[in-house]
Amino acid sequence: MKVKIFKIRLPEEFLYKDQGMLDSFLEAHEIIKVETAFVSEERYWSVILYFEDIKLIKNTVKEPKPVKYSAENDFLNADEEKILDALKLWRSEKAREQNLPTYFIASNKELVSVAKYKPAKREELLEIKGFGKHKIENYGEEILEILESI
């Protein structure tokens, strides 16, 4: 197991570049464990990743990945707006509990996609872009409970 540390600085001139470097790394490695800490005096997130390199198998044909659902526009009907508001409130509370930025829990686009798609089972959450095994294990049941309650 290897370890890599990222610094995600909050000022906008650094945030997108730092986040992009983290995203690229996450796509290229098998993440085993993640630890985060906020360094308040310098205003940045420290992200520690424990990982394995993804082994590339050459000259093999892979099955195409299924296309995942992603909301195409931001127009929501009244019911979808209620769902989105409830999901955003839940996300804020969860981020506060876990001392994480809200986008670590779920992005706005992911929450809009959930509000429009309205999954009823964990398997259906997998069909939404941005929802993988880790996110569903950590938050899937709570998201489905919110959808059921509205």
UniProtKB/TrEMBL annotation:
PROSITE patterns linked: HRDC
Record lineage: Bacteria, Pseudomonadati, Bacteroidota, Flavobacteriia, Flavobacteriales
Top-level division of the source organism's lineage: Bacteria
The protein, known as: Aldolase
PANTHER family the record matches: RIBONUCLEASE D (PTHR47649:SF1)
Organism: Chryseobacterium viscerum
Stored Pfam families: HRDC
Ranges where the HRDC domain occurs: 77-150
Coiled-coil regions, chain positions: none
